[in-house]
Amino acid sequence: MLTPEQSQAAIEGWMRASQNFMQGFLGHVAQTQTSSSQGSGFLAGMPQFPGLDNERIVHLHREHAEMHARLWGALAQRKEGENVEPVMAPAAGDRRFTAPEWASSPVHDYMRQAYLINARFLSAVAEELPIADRAAKNRMQFMLRQYIDALAPSNFAATNPEVVQKALETQGESLTQGLLNLIADMEKGRISMTDDAAFEVGGNLATTAGAVIFENEIMQLIQYAPLTEKVCKRPLLIVPPCINKYYILDLQPENSFVRYAVEQGVTVFLVSWRNPRAEQGHLTWDDYLGDGVLQALQVLRSVTKVDKPNVLGFCIGGTLLASALAVAYARGEDPVESVTFLTSLLDFSETGDISCFIDAAAVASKEATLGKGGVMAGRELSQVFSCLRPNDLIWNYVVDNYLKGNKPPVFDLLYWNSDCTNLPGPFAGYYLRNTYLENNLRQPGKLTMLGESIDLGRITVPAYFVATREDHIVPWRTSFLGRRLIGGESTFVLGASGHIAGVINPPSKNKRSFWTGPLSSTTADEWLGEAVEHRGSWWPNWIDWLKARSGEWVNASSKLGSREYKVLEAAPGRYVKERA
């Protein structure tokens, strides 16, 4: 228990640190702007910017000072054991300060509220800065959020009451264990998000029965065994992202998207991308289309004798799938019956925070170093994705693992998230330039792939789009734009939660919601205004849509593969087990 003198010293120290941080941030921004020495009162000593609405900044400064005055007054008048309505409460979903210790201790209550007030002020000032280049402003705001999140009092042992309390209760053992956890993670080269020893791909993950019936340098093709006596005549080919392992779609029986589809009588084929090593560092975007997606379609047709299967692409798998289909249509083929896009981008107009990592200089650097060969490390990609949600994917584990000394939870999705995948350099450079940087895929005739001029409008089959409301990788409104690029009738479904949890939402859990809306909507917001909410998973809605395009019911085959494409090994196969 802190004495009054210690409490006072802690609060004053925190105030000084907060002020120093704010002044440092404003000073850093000022270096890139033309400043003047004008200013008085609340603006004294603050950088001035041409075009900056100083009246607005005066208002923000005054509001900031008033909130701190209210907070200090509330602390001074607070009686021991009394609960006081906070001056600044955490935002909904912010789990950093929810423990009762933050509210019961006046010192820590002050620290969390002072931090939130300062964070609010800095974010508001950053929004007001007159930076004409929107991309540059977005990057500056993104970096500010990284600093703000990093400096939260919850991230430091001395200012986190939960950490202090556990250290007292364990007589320091939690801090010792936390140090051991840190050393172990330093040896791994990454933060542990789950207990790695609890899972095994092919043991308790990726267990849906099937077999690899084809493989080449880029991928293995898996055919899954039927679980029903009769199946739909038209099979489904799934193209997962090559940035991650496919088994996000086949985690465990109770949350396996693949198993669900098979249980509904759909014959499922799935591309398992190879985790490229130096030997595969020469592979290009065209290689992934020709020897990946189009090769898988050719094998599927040979095995099933069905000329037009249904197809599904997830994330970048959807971008690859759309590109491959555009090639096939340009060749005069009629390749598929329907297409499903799960959290995929076809139009890259607004890509969210991930665009802060991708500018002309960054892409040119990748092309110069890896464009003619080499491998882009999966760990680099993983770090980028973690920075998009640092409180959930970085600081949460720093606090739990290293400050509290806890063991990471056992969670299949987080195991998959840590099982990163490399990318061939030429593939990565082409993808970054022609999607995120220049957004060329949406322009008919702009790109040539496998010798064909690409136009997504030639894809005239029914399309089913799934996006998720809190997706930090594929913003749902941008995913919606893909509807305008596809030439056929499209259905758009919006799921709750984020990029992964919104997709992997099995009906058995009866969790979350999804929204459906009119096909006639021209904008995302117009669609949302007319959309209808449905409780539970979107999977049954999709399977009904798919079955309507899957032909009659036929007897399920007792054998996998064919005379030409024999079983090579049992699913999940070797490729998915290769670690980066």
Could you please describe the fold and organization of this structure?
- This protein is an alpha/beta fold and 580 residues long.
- The chain has two domains: 4-169, no CATH class; 210-377 and 422-577, 3-Layer(aba) Sandwich (Rossmann fold).
- It is built from 18 helices and 17 strands.
- Helix 8 (257-263) links the parallel strand 4 and strand 5.
- The longest helix has 27 residues, at 4-30.
Low-confidence stretches: 28-48
Radius of gyration based on Cα positions: 27 Å
Main sheet record: 11 strands, mixed
Strand proportion, as a percent range, falls in 5-15%
Question: Which key features would you list for this structure?
Answer:
580 residues; alpha/beta; Rossmann fold; eleven-stranded mixed beta sheet
What does the secondary structure layout of this molecule look like, with pairings?
Elements: H1 4-30, H2 54-77, H3 100-104, H4 106-128, H5 134-150, H6 161-169, H7 173-188, E1 210-215, E2 219-224, E3 230-232, E4 236-239, H8 257-263, E5 268-273, H9 285-304, E6 310-314, H10 316-330, E7 338-342, H11 360-370, E8 375-376, H12 378-388, H13 390-403, H14 412-418, E9 423-424, H15 425-437, E10 448-449, E11 452-453, E12 463-468, H16 476-481, E13 490-495, E14 513-516, H17 524-530, E15 532-535, H18 539-547, E16 553-555, E17 569-570
Parallel strand pairs: 4-5, 4-6, 6-7, 7-12, 12-13
Antiparallel strand pairs: 1-2, 1-17, 2-5, 3-16, 8-9, 10-11, 13-14, 14-15
Helix pairs in contact: 1-4, 2-4, 4-5, 7-13, 9-10, 11-15
